[in-house]
Amino acid sequence: MTYPDPFDDRSPWDETPTSNAPDSPETPVTTPAVTTAPNPFKIGLTFKASSGYDAEWITPTIYGATAEEVASRTVELVHALREHGVIELTSKAAQYTREQFKGGSAGGGSAPKRFENGRVVNKGQASSDGPADDDCQHGRKLVEKANWAALFCQARDKSDQCEPLWRQKDGSFKAK
Questions:
Q1: Among 17, 40, 86, 141, which residue has the least CB neighbours within 10 Å?
Q2: Kind and range of the H or E element at 121?
Q3: How far is residue 163 from each of residues 134, 146, 173, measured CA to CA in Å?
Q4: How far apart are CA 130 and CA 152, in angstroms?
Q5: Residue 164: which of 140, 147, 144, 146 has the closest Cα?
Q6: 121 in Cβ contact with 114 (< 8 Å)
Q7: How far apart are CA 96 and CA 94, in angstroms?
């Protein structure tokens, strides 16, 4: 394959293209005419069953050439959703899907979290205040493994941390 000389004074547009088929008529290139005007107005709606992220949503988008057209289409849509039972059907389908789901945690999301000593802590790992006679002022974090459990001090600096409290056979916690 050869490339044209970029410093040549001839323009590639001055040359006539060669066709592989002899005597083939050249068809002109045309652009299709626009038959419909674009809709400059649109509105997106969200119908949400509850405040959680695991709740079902219906999210239609309505288009129209004028704001009045979008508004009237929105009213028509809301009435149609109610009249044809789309909202109830969506709710039933979501409930059925939740009943079929076997994985993950119950409740549709991760464990609730809280902010503690500058860190986000899962509620399942939430720190216990420890025993009533515990003098740790930093707060303690419960760590449970298969065969042991302990309450660890949450002070940022290791030198400031209080001694860990270990779970005893009776369920109480105390230092070793």
A1: 17
A2: strand 119-122
A3: 10, 21, 12
A4: 9
A5: 140
A6: yes
A7: 5
Nearest Cα to Cα of residue 124 among 142, 136, 99, 149: 142
Cβ neighbours of 136 (radius 10 Å): 20
Residue 164: per-residue pLDDT: 92
The Cα–Cα gap between 167 and 149 comes to 5
Amino acid 143 reads: V
φ and ψ of 42, to 5 deg: -150, 155
Nearest to 86 by CA among 66, 64, 60, 62: 60
Classify residue 123 by its DSSP letter. Answer: G
DSSP states of 45-111: --EESSSSTTS-EE--EEEESSHHHHHHHHHHHHHHHHHTTHHHHHHHHHHHHHHH--SS-TTSSPP
The whole-number pLDDT of residue 76 equals 92
| Residues of the chain with confidence (pLDDT) below 70 | 1, 3-4, 6, 11-28, 32-37, 102-130, 132
78-110: pLDDT as tens digits: 899 889 998 888 888 888 887 887 665 555 455
